[in-house]
Design goal:
The chain is globular, with a radius of gyration of 13 Å. The chain is built from no helices and eleven strands. Strands 2, 4, 5, 6, 9, 10 and 11 form a seven-stranded mixed beta sheet that branches. A four-stranded antiparallel beta sheet has the order 1-3-8-7, with no helix packed on it. Helix content is about 0%, strand content about 55%.
Length: about 110
Amino acid sequence: QVQLVESGGGLVQAGDSLRLSCAASGQTFSGYAMGWFRQAPGKKREFVGSIIWSSGTTSYSDSMKERFTISRDNAKNTVYLQMNSLKPEDTAVYYCNVATIWGQGTQVTVSS
């Protein structure tokens, strides 16, 4: 069974950094793109960025590309989301996704 498990969320202050992880199990995803999304309270889920497993090519939402970086470790079947200079508006549940599979999400709360 394919599973995605996010981790690394927490409560931080504005200006801090966090690195989220998304560990994939059940199969390899070399031909896929892994995406990060987030959903703030009362808002729609929005695209953060993605990475293609095989090439490492990344793509980002324009509003986040200056502060967020996605990377992957193929040996660990894990994708990372490095978030710097966090702002209160980054507060959300962050999800990883591949194809139709979603993780359970990890909460990120940024205090001002």
